[in-house]
Design brief:
single chain, about 280 residues, alpha/beta, five-stranded parallel beta sheet, 10 helices, 12 strands
Length: about 280
């Protein structure tokens, strides 16, 4: 079967080869209507891009783009470190593509195409338009960490349900915790699976005794800020200042105060003459 090129698509649509090329690369100067017509015709004719010349320019090395949207995410950092080691071992070139987007969009795909990438590994869930552009340019996509409902996208993900169960078992059985705070990072399906599994396991291990409070990162941040604001107005005293009142004695406890760097704060309040204190233990 004869391969279909840009000239064939251009002839069928009665447009220039340059228009077809720019439409397939999702360039901004091509109208959405023209892009749609070109893509439909490309699918119809079975068009597949020829990346041989791009491959030769990189001395035979394939380029893999890794897409992230955070450098503070510990999970992303660990995955990237492992991938880079693997790329070096397999003699691949790689590029790290950063975006502020929450999803893998067509803009990110276009950035990867401009780098002449051969494959994309993404930590961000791709939208359908992005997948279409990648498919037209014969660029495979691998999604890491999440499940995607798209046959073109391969997935590598952790067992979030098992992770929630293991965390609950560790805290309840090893540390004997019965009051827990679960801090959720987002409403993404992977986070929700971990949360549901964690709460379910705690309730199973501690029937009628467990107390799991669910907080978002923003809610936790607000509560901590409120606490430290109150703390700044509280007088802090060491053990040397605490009066020993047993046996009707009113003597200063002779125990040495701890070094400042080792002080721990007891959060119970003591009222002396209407004044609030937090004791240093």
């Amino acid at each position: 079967m004869k391969s279909v090129g840009l000239k064939t698509i251009a002839f069928e649509l009665n447009v220039s080869v340059n228009t077809v090329s720019r439409a397939l690369r999702d360039c901004d100067d091509i109208s959405d209507e023209t892009k749609l017509k070109v893509r439909q015709k490309a699918y119809e004719l079975g068009y597949m891009p020829n990346n041989i010349s791009q491959f030769i320019k990189r001395d035979g090395k394939n380029l893999i783009s890794v897409v992230v949207n955070s450098f503070n995410n510990l999970y992303f950092n660990i995955i990237c470190e492992k991938l880079i080691s693997l790329f070096k071992e397999k003699n691949y070139d790689f590029s790290l593509v950063y975006t502020h987007e929450q999803f893998l969009t067509t803009n990110v795909i276009k950035q990867c195409i401009s780098q002449r990438t051969d494959a994309i590994i993404t930590m961000l869930e791709p939208n359908n338009d992005a997948v279409d552009v990648a498919k037209l340019n014969n660029i495979p996509i691998v999604m890491v960490g999440r499940i995607v409902d798209n046959d073109y996208v391969d997935e590598v993900y952790t067992d979030d349900t098992l992770g929630g169960t293991l965390a609950a078992n560790y805290l309840v059985n090893f540390h004997r915790c019965n009051k827990l705070i679960y801090v959720k990072n987002s409403e993404m399906e992977c986070c929700q699976r971990r949360q549901d599994s964690f709460v379910k396991t705690v309730n199973e291990l501690l029937p009628n005794k467990s107390d799991v409070k669910i907080l978002s990162v923003e809610e936790l941040d607000n509560k901590l800020n409120s606490f430290f604001k109150k703390l700044s107005f509280v007088h802090i005293r060491s053990r040397k200042q605490i009066k020993h009142k047993s046996d009707n004695r009113n003597e200063i406890q002779n125990q040495k105060p701890c070094p400042r760097r080792l002080w721990f704060f007891s959060l119970k309040e003591n009222n002396d003459n209407g004044k609030k204190h937090i004791d240093v233990n």
